[in-house]
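Entry for the shared binder. Reason: the reviewer on the internal report wants the predicted structure included alongside the sequence.
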Amino acid sequence: MTQFDLTDDQREIQELARRFTADAITPHAAEWDEKHIFPRDTIKAAAELGFAAIYVSEESGGIGLGRMESALIMEAMAYGCPSTSAFISIHNMAAWMLDAFGSAELKARFLPDLVTMDKLASYCLTEPSSGSDAAALKTKAVRDGDDYIVTGTKQFISGAGDNDVYLVMVRTGGEGPKGISCLLIEKDMPGVSFGANERKLGWHSQPTRAVILDQVRVPATNMVGAEGQGFSIAMQGLDGGRLNIGACSLGGAQRCLDEALAYTKARQQFGKPIADFQNTQFTLADMATELEAARALLYTAAAKVTANAPDKTRFAAMAKRFATDTGSKVVDQALQLHGGYGYLMDYPIERFWRDLRVHSILEGTNQVMRMIVGRDLLK
């Protein structure tokens, strides 16, 4: 069984994340959601455990773990609050991109504060007119001496307005993916502004705004990777991001399954607990089975991304699609088992139902995941 089991080190990491979640996230998550509180202190406390730089190299101050360990951490934290866990995932993705592709000078300037979360980072790819068709982005960076002049708008950016560092995909060349580069832009650069905080169905514990760039002068030394490499960097970042979002769905769904188990044992109808009814047992059995199947696929994909396997992108897409669809289905079934009580904010199920719904949209919609898998199978 060892090839299907976690190592001792992985179990210790998982338990550390679970304890942190139980102490620092779960007791407060409902209030964060209801009052739209961005828990910056709690997020910074996660950084003290290394959770802000999970797969940033040890040489750069991170803890240098793989995507499997990251998935375990995100899954554990999402058990308390998928929104907060997903925010930490996005910061990790941006920090890794800087560590993997940034110059020594750029890493020395920014990574120490990102590792401690004294500064927070956003990933900026989506635009008002380019979502799934990310390679059609229009934000433009024109070379002017030792700088780039950047103009454009990024949409649906987690942490926008609150975060300090933005890894922005910009067009430095012609049409298509090869004309895209990645620039690190700071919050306080002249010409950077933000839209209103979006009014969202879920993910209330983190801000989401547009990033507006109006003739922003960015030093050419702030380029991450080479000119024209931006789209490739963005897609490699998404392989890991998709695993983490899938893991967040697993964590949220596991919480709702556990809540449903407890509720159906306690809830009496027709003279006995509703857990005694065969229909309830069948529903719970399907929830648990599908959740374990999604977890197995996600862990396999995480191993492939860590190993840089040739089929890593296909497996990351498969796992993201299956885990997020399964997570939403399990939460929906948990809400149904709770009946009218599941619809109330007094119970956590409705919050998880709202938070997990966006997971099948972001980091690439699940329809795009099917496109990636289909194209890879047929090439």
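Summary line for the report: The chain has eleven helices and ten strands.
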